[in-house]
Here is the input.
Amino acid sequence: MCQIKLSQTEAPEKECTGFLVRENNIRRKKDGFMKIEVDTHSHTLASGHAYNTIREMASAAAEKGLRGLAITDHAIEMPGTCHSYYFENLRIVPRQMYGIELLMGTELNILNEDGEVDMPHRLLGEMDIAIASLHSPCYKGEHTMEAVGRAYMNVMENEYVDIIGHPDDGRFPVDFEMLAREARRTGTLLEVNNSSLRPGGFRLNAMENSKKMLAECKKQGTMIVLGTDSHVDVDIAEYPYAFRVLEETDFPEELVANTSLEKLKSSLKHNKNI
Here is the structure.
């Protein structure tokens, strides 16, 4: 029996011979392993409440053994984030640093039940990758399961929305059977957000909701990604709580899109731009 000890500050400890739960960005089992090659969710100083530069984040990704890193700074309706000019000018940023392939994109704010987001469609099409998420300062719709469901359904119809970010937040209740079904239909990836799952995190019932989502994704064959939602360089490629929930749901590796850079890129709606 594998027993995983968690504290408020530490990742799960390795306490069994059957499973080695955390070894940087690698999840190992006695009969194989899962390696995450791309961290799909990270923020820089441009987001206003993160603490490192693009170069510092890329350097940390290289030190952790990643092949790719998505820089997904908050779009313009998030209080304290950057101006739209920042995203207009991302074309000048090198896509290779320290041997890491950078995907320069954004974490969009879903604004309402119509699935509107805070970036013009033309500019969104120029991003390498886009996450769409519900954030309390930006979402103006009702917080009912029906309204939140409509918001997700509508935003997933957007041809440039690649990933739904942290759909685990119980403050925005959703029918996970519907979410997994519509994500698969629209080719949208669903995120298991390691930051949400930290002990003491502010997202409501994140662990329970992640398990429900993964059960539906497993049942319906819906692809997911693991994202750290890093706001500081030391968190890049650290997935201890995400790996735990994958272990507990016996989630199949073939449905995890960021186990290789190539697999992720082929799973993105934006892949024609990369």
